[in-house]
């Protein structure tokens, strides 16, 4: 599928300046997203505040609809928020912890997830962490053992940010529902790079945003809430966009919207909405299945090159359960990241104890080999950064 890369590479001009292998931190800026942001600025200048009625509300509606199509949901099940933390705060404020105090998470989840409920321990919430035996995955048996009649919510990642492991959303959701609990998945490292079907998986809440694999940059997050659940949840973290009749500006009565807008807060960052629409448009045009197939090719190549060079990438045996994140254990990852950028103009990232590399459909096999060769040279120059024994 090299033809896919060759066709789309020019859409991302930053790739001509650096060897960029860090999409799991921030997706590359496309020409389309840059043009879309300029369009937003032009509309701002031309219409001023009336741009809301002329075009901006329609752009927000289109963003909800695009994300809904991407995850096989309906537009009225999608709320738009500024980031995952705010979205989680809205959900966390919707739950009653008196009868069901427990929230089940894993030690592999991004800290934003546990922080929401650790901060609510005074409200009665209790966080239960599931360990990972291999720093790659968390077995389903751990979820089965932890979830019970006191569990309010299972909140975890679709793809783990430090291993690339793809969790079985269908199985985790079924375990939660067996005990009357809800399932929530942070899909920031999933949506865009792997197929997502929230209906088939029977997920209650799913979140993702433009920052990474959806190629839209920071400032906008989408939250799916299952239709049958929408009117059951009444968040206390809210804002004027959550009102059923928001443009009536009635300070005395707060009637929550009947659709997923009830989970929204304040005025959205419209530049981010325009960028996100353009990014999702690229993913739609290519097709998630094609994005997934090409990224899998690149991951397999990278893992093979790393192993041939003597590295031990931390990946599962079955790469079908793996997303576009490859972790390479090292003694001093931040120093290696800096050296790769300074000496070879290669952009990757570090997480505790490991180098984090994330190829995407716009990368090439040559870039992966260049990275591995450069990594070998740097480690030979600086023995202190070698792989831990």
What do you see in this structure?
InterPro entries: Aminotrans_V_dom, PyrdxlP-dep_Trfase, PyrdxlP-dep_Trfase_major, PyrdxlP-dep_Trfase_small. This is Aminotransferase class V-fold PLP-dependent enzyme. One of its GO terms (molecular function) is transaminase activity. The protein has about 400 residues and is of the alpha/beta class. It has helices spanning about 1-10, 30-45, 50-70, 85-90, 110-120, 140-145, 170-180, 200, 225-230, 270-285, 290-310, 335-345, 365-380, and strands spanning about 20, 80, 100-105, 125-130, 150-155, 180-185, 205-210, 220-225, 325-330, 345, 350, 355. Helix 11 packs parallel to helix 13. About 40% of the residues lie in helices and about 15% in strands. It folds into two domains: about 1-25 and about 285-385, Aspartate Aminotransferase, domain 1 (Alpha-Beta Complex); about 35-285, Type I PLP-dependent aspartate aminotransferase-like (Major domain) (Aspartate Aminotransferase, domain 2), CATH 3.40.640.10. The mean pLDDT is about 95. It has 13 helices and twelve strands. The strands form three sheets. The protein has a seven-stranded mixed β-sheet with strand order 2-8-7-6-5-3-4, sandwiched between helices. A three-stranded antiparallel β-sheet has the order 9-12-11, with helices on one face.
